[in-house]
């Protein structure tokens, strides 16, 4: 079972690339982030024509998450996180597919630092940690897949110096990620590549793709029961190099059947 996290950076602009990816790789579950689409304009028919059922939590022009399942309809469990009744941003969606619980996560960027956007990032992280704890208590196979906007380790970035002042690498951001993982989650890509050096994002600016100046911010965390089924993990890097591609590459984990 191949589960993918894919920040598409605008689903309408990247739809040909997404459909191409679904047709070619045929992943079982795809968690999308940064749809930049309202619920009404989500391209459901195109995705169904590609053989995937879908649920989505949209927001016009910003954010937005979705979960796709091959030859199946994801069963929604939760949209949005508790703990802030004033939060209207579409960043969390949770579903069940074939006995597996999956969540599509688009954690706030947090720049500039310091400031209210960074405080929102940390507060949102706290709420995610609370939800993750509740999921672990269910003692089921769970995958938390998404763009976490956190570079966890120095070997997860092309240049520590270049990103030192960015919200993605602040001590508070990293500490929150460590607190989440320490609950008992397995960082699947880190497990597969313990020495780092694997990127999931390359900026459009300054020839980052051509220079391979990237970093790892897309993560798939596994509950203990999902980790028991771990088979492999990786990044489908070549899709970042296609015309009109997202600045993220599809990042994936493969689990053995239960």
UniProtKB/TrEMBL annotation:
One matching Pfam family: Exo_endo_phos
UniProt xrefs under InterPro entries: AP_endonuc_1, AP_endonuclease_F1_BS, Endo/exonu/phosph_ase_sf, Endo/exonuclease/phosphatase, ExoIII-like
Superkingdom, natural source: Bacteria
Gene3D superfamilies referenced in this protein's UniProt entry, alphabetically: Endonuclease/exonuclease/phosphatase (3.60.10.10)
Site (Transition state stabilizer) residue list: 149
Name of the protein described by the UniProt record: Exodeoxyribonuclease III
Cofactor annotation comment: Probably binds two magnesium or manganese ions per subunit.
Site (Interaction with DNA substrate): 248
Annotated site (Important for catalytic activity): 218
Boundaries of every Endonuclease/exonuclease/phosphatase domain copy: 4-248
Keyword Membrane among record annotations: no
């Amino acid at each position: 079972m191949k589960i993918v996290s894919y920040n598409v950076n605008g689903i309408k602009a990247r739809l040909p690339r997404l459909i191409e990816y679904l047709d070619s790789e045929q992943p079982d579950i795809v968690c999308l982030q940064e749809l930049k689409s309202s619920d009404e304009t989500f391209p459901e028919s195109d995705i169904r024509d590609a053989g995937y059922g879908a649920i989505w939590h949209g927001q016009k022009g910003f954010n937005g998450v979705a979960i796709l399942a091959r030859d199946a309809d994801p069963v929604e469990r939760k949209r949005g996180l508790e703990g802030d009744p004033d939060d209207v941003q579409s960043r969390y969606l949770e579903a069940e597919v074939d006995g597996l619980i999956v969540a599509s996560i688009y954690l706030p960027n947090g720049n500039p630092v310091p400031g209210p956007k960074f405080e929102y990032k940390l507060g949102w992280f706290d709420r995610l940690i609370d939800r993750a704890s509740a999921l672990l208590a269910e003692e089921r196979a769970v995958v938390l897949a998404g763009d976490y906007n956190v570079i966890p380790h120095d070997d997860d970035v092309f240049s520590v110096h270049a990103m030192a002042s960015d919200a993605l690498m602040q001590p508070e951001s990293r500490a929150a990620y460590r607190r989440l993982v320490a609950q008992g989650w397995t960082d699947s890509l880190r497990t597969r590549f313990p020495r780092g050096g694997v990127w999931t994002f390359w900026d459009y600016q300054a020839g980052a793709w051509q220079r391979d100046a990237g970093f790892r911010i897309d993560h798939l965390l596994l509950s203990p029961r999902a980790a028991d089924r771990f088979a492999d993990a990786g990044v489908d890097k070549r899709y970042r190099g296609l015309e009109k591609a997202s600045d993220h590459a599809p990042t994936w984990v493969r689990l053995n059947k239960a």
